[in-house]
Amino acid sequence: MPKTFRTPIQAIQSNIDINHLSNTLLLGSCFAENMAEKLERHLFPISFNPFGILYNAFSISKGLHYIAGTQTIVEKDLIFHNSLWHSKWHHGHFSGISKEETLDKVNFTLNNARNKLKNTNILVITLGTAFVYKLKSTNEIVGNCHKLPSDQFIKSRQSIAEVVACLSTAIKQIIEIRPELKIIFTVSPVRHLKDGFIENQRSKAILLLACEQLIKELKNAFYFPAYEIMMDELRDYRFYATDMLHPNKTSISHIWDLFQETFFSIETKGLVREINQLKKELDHRPLHPNSEAHLAFVDRLKKKIEEFEKKYAALKIQVSG
User: Fold this and answer.
1) What's the rounded mean pLDDT across residues 215-231?
2) Buried b (16+ CB within 10 A) or exposed e, 261-286
3) Residue 6 placed within a domain
4) pTM of the predicted model, to two decimals?
């Protein structure tokens, strides 16, 4: 028999079923966005990162409190730096050249997230780091430093108890609105080496143990081992992007496959394959777009999409051009 040069992680069966009727909210690090992109491509109804990428548990929990509450982002939540207004709780892509522009962006997205929460079935939280940054001038932990000078912040590391406490409180607030909500925790496989090699591992260890505690404490909660898949099964630099920190397309696809095995039924996996095939055909870029062969291909594909949308009335394939 051929020798196996890796130690595969087997998918663990979950009682959480993600399907095309599930409304899923994903929050957290850039790995949350990787999974969100996969779900969105395969036509799952999702919303993700209404505050942009968030790395630590405190910032994620603050986002959840905002979504579950009635508070809006106001002027005192903004910072002016490098000719832009930034929200202390949001990623930089929400920043604007005026206070009004920034507040409009953040509050529009917040209200949208609140409206979607009413129908959310599944919450996916991806934790990136246990380190937090406290703004000295306000004594507040921020979601993003927005490239302000480092001497304006105090860096510290949350304990297991602090991670559990802030997330548990926020999730229970969400559950009051959506009692049947199911929660999936995962730890991002992205390495935060700016913190240091040893510090990054200790940070991840805190998150892993906090997730374990949260699973015990919360009803309908499950842990998906994205971090372990990357560290133990894909432990080779060929599975990393050129920065040697983020998973590359190959590893993201492999983790996505195990995500499907964990949370998708046989029927859902079959539908995903069907959608994937149509998307691949739509992505095809012909060498000779006006050739008879390509025009016939386009006509066949159009009929396939019409048949698909007739069969699955709630699902729509976006056709560009």
Assistant:
1) 95
2) ebbbeeebeebbebbeebeeebeeee
3) no
4) 0.94
